[in-house]
């Protein structure tokens, strides 16, 4: 046996230094493997990069900004990320959802305080989310791992499933006020899909339950702090990272016991080529993308002049109007039609992390849900949604950066057509992604595993897809 072959037995390679690739690398390195991470971009982070875009000193997150599931991640909670610079910061109000009457539903970490603010909908909110919030730690541990396993807490998971498997349109009937229905509907819209489909409530119910347990925090100094902390842990464990190294063929990689790919299924299929079994290749190349996102980063003097006071104190604001308007906009985007009034997710991270601002100039970011690969300019429609709930916003904007679906893909090859969630959340793909398999991380190529957001549990800066894939790799090596 050659020296190079012997060396490969205890080495691992990860392609992609997003949060999942880094979490996979840390998992492997802490089990004694010598890990090398290759990143195509000149900096690590993928969806958790941050930087100045327009006004000096005003800091924006390039993609992921608010980290409900990051704070609640079963894996990240086991790591001492604080010792490596990660500090979570919470706003006074986690989320607000304004409606045309001038009222707004407000989501607090406290179920009780949220219910009190919802008036007539308070009792229904308390009944639905009180028990789920109490079980949130158990639920995140269950649903953020592959579901093809025996659950550790079947009764609690069944209680969650009773609500999560329903269409969001059915769960919304519990609420009678426009603000209460809108508050639930805006979180449910994180599905990026039709809210009347089976399991259309799953994402919303889970995020709200987790938010009541962990809040909706941001990372101090920008989301890049998550990647930086994971990278520091990896280096501490003996791993290394090489940036500016695009991997276009498996032959480029050094000998290794296992290879993990923080890539889209299509990119993984291209990389593996004929090594991949035809049935797996078909599943990867036919994997349905989600609708796209169009992003605006606004440097706003004095902040956004919201009509509803709750929005002025909320780290996240959902702009979609009534529940019915959200349902319509999400259906249109999913079926390839640009809605006149798109659903917007607005991040005001500076309210929790004031160091992101420069004096009275504050960063405000917004995503609109648009059709996959949308080639138009959503700027006017998005600003109109701001003006609808915060008249005078345009006059306060001192700098604007628009990022189209194509721009998102150019900045991160995994965001194909502006898909920032790693594939459509169809009822099947909410539980089985990217294909139907006992091991969803296996590519069918011995020793090669997929660890991106296209694998369970899906999108978010929680690192669980990477950690879960690394555990599959370790089992295959007899180290599980």
TrEMBL record:
One Pfam family here: NAD_binding_8
Gene3D superfamilies: FAD/NAD(P)-binding domain (3.50.50.60)
InterPro entries: FAD/NAD-bd_sf
Top-level lineage group: Bacteria
Protein name, entry field: NAD(P)/FAD-dependent oxidoreductase
């Amino acid at each position: 046996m050659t020296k190079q072959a012997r060396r490969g037995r205890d080495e691992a390679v990860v392609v992609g230094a997003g949060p999942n690739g880094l979490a996979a690398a840390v998992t492997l390195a802490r089990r004694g493997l010598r890990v090398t991470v290759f990143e195509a971009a000149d900096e690590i982070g993928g969806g958790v990069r941050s930087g100045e875009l327009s006004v000096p000193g005003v800091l924006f997150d390039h993609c992921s900004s608010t980290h409900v599931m990051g704070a609640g991640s079963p894996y990240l909670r086991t790591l001492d990320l604080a010792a490596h610079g990660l500090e979570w910061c919470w706003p006074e109000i986690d989320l607000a959802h304004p409606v045309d009457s001038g009222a707004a539903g407000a989501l607090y970490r406290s179920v009780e305080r949220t219910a009190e603010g919802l008036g007539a909908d308070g009792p229904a909110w308390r009944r639905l989310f009180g028990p789920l919030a109490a079980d949130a730690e158990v639920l995140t541990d269950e649903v953020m791992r592959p579901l093809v396993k025996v659950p550790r807490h079947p009764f609690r998971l069944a209680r969650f499933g009773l609500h999560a498997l329903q269409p969001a349109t059915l769960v919304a009937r519990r609420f009678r006020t426009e603000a209460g229905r809108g508050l639930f509907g805006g979180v449910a819209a994180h599905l990026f899909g039709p809210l009347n489909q089976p399991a259309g409530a799953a994402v919303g119910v889970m995020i709200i339950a987790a938010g009541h347990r962990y809040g909706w925090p941001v990372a101090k100094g920008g989301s890049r702090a998550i990647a930086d902390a994971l990278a520091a842990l990896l280096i501490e464990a003996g791993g290394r990272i090489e940036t500016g190294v695009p991997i276009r063929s498996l032959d480029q990689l050094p000998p290794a016991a296992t290879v993990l790919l923080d890539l889209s299924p299509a990119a993984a299929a291209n990389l593996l080529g004929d090594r991949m079994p035809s049935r797996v290749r078909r599943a990867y190349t036919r994997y349905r993308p989600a609708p796209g996102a169009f992003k605006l980063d606004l440097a706003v003097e004095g902040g956004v002049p919201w009509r509803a006071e709750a929005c002025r104190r909320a780290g996240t604001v959902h702009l979609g109007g009534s529940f019915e308007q959200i349902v319509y906009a999400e259906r249109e985007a999913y079926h390839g039609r640009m809605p006149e009034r798109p659903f917007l997710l607005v991040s005001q991270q500076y309210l929790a992390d004031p160091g992101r601002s420069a004096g009275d100039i504050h960063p405000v970011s917004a995503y609109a849900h648009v059709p996959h690969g949308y080639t138009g300019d959503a700027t006017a429609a998005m600003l109109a949604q701001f003006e609808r709930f915060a008249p005078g916003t345009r006059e306060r904007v001192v700098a604007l950066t628009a990022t189209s679906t194509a721009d998102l893909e150019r900045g991160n090859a995994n965001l194909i057509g502006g898909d920032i969630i790693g594939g459509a959340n169809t009822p099947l793909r909410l539980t089985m992604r990217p294909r139907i398999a006992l091991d969803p991380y296996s590519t069918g190529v011995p020793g090669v595993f997929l660890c991106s957001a296209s694998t369970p549990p899906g999108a978010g800066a929680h690192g669980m897809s990477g950690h879960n894939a690394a555990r599959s790799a370790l089992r295959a090596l007899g180290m599980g």
